[in-house]
Amino acid sequence: MRGTTMNIVWIPVRQHLTHRKLDDIPAAIQREMTCAGPTSGLKPGARVAIGVGSRGISNLTEIVRSVVGFFRERGARPFLFPAMGSHGAATAEGQATVLEHFGIDEASMGCPVVSSFEVVSLGRTAEGIETFAGKDAWDSDGVFLINRVKWHTSFAGAIESGVAKMLAIGMGKIEAARSSHGHARSLGMETVIRSVASHLLVTGKILGGLAVLEDAFHDTAQVTALTAGDLIEREAELLRLTKSWMVRIPVNALDILIVDEIGKDISGVGMDLKIVNRGNHGQYNPWPDTPTVQRIFIRGLSENSYGNAIGVGLADVIHDRVLDRIDVNAGRINAMTSGSLAAVRIPLHFPSDRECMELLMATVGKFDAAEITMARIRNTLEMGTLALTENLRDEIAKNPAIEITGPPFVQEFDSKGNYTSPG
Fold first, then answer.
1. Is the domain of 132 the same as that of 268?
2. Which of 125, 169, 242, 374 is the most buried (most CB within 10 A)?
3. Is residue 66 classed exposed, middle or buried when 0-12, 13-18 and 19+ CB atoms within 10 A define those classes?
């Protein structure tokens, strides 16, 4: 191959994305919750269970604190519980730790945080799916859930990630996750979510939920309080809206995509598969409206993933530093529960960025390094700024939504063969 990894020229770019950041999140939550009226049927002193998940939602502590405050101001006794299926290594302690690392604990929230793995079975849906809920939550006088509504990374439908999915899977701990994912293999995940959520919504126990929408900058853009009566229909509307805000890699095709970090706090499969164009069983480029990506290099694992490296198996090569952070048990539980075994396989790995890149560059069918098209992103949540190779300059120039932010540069390596900057 002509050329080396040392002399590849990169261009720093910024995507022109629309800022939709809410100026006053607590005020917006207060308005939405007051309008939805989730406390209208509660008696004074009612115990309200508020479910919170494991995703890295922006402003999560402020959002949760505002919801807790709303219920307290109306005479309820709220408590928080992890509604995250098998995440946190499928232990009560692990899930409490996930919330603590997000700044959610009794001292900061002003109410207890109850983490238990005891569940109750709530019967079967019309499709034969057994449903579950955490016993602590179901023993309360009412359940309210907080979650981000967005596209799911590994399936497509009118309902994907959001409050309904948390209701169907997250609230019932590992038993609900196993049941739902198992049935999804034959029924499809959207059918499972609709079936289980509908079954639980008619019990009268669910007070509703707060749907959080984020813009392309991962900022809180909208909060919408959902009632039990119209939760699924309203969430479908919100999903259509947030899909219209989706950010993508701003070129048509890449030979190599470098991802500085993946993690459960970033996406359920570590990275947004609809951005990197992978299937959760390892399929290459399954999403037709997404830029094609031939090779993926993962450089790191997010600290807030707590060793769960699901998604690592969807890369073509990883840096050894990823291996150093993997908690095999956490990934095993997640893969076993979801059925995504390919997502935790260990790909080829090397102790330096240079070795990883040299392997990939030799496998894309181009014999001159200057012809290999590449992009480098921090993660799939932070896509506003990225680096593209010089050979994409003509495509960049034709796209008014991309701005070049600085002079071309070479990402050099240190004495150990790792990138010096950034990352």
1. no
2. 169
3. buried
**Domain range holding 330?**
5-17+247-410
Amino acid present at 408:
P
Same domain, 238 and 339: no
Token pair in block for residue 367: 């014999």
Q: Would you say how long the chain is, in residues?
A: 423
Task: Annotate 46-109 with DSSP letters as a single string.
Answer: -EEEEEE-SS--TTHHHHHHHHHHHHHHTT-EEEEEE--TTTGGGSHHHHHHHHHHTT-SHHHH
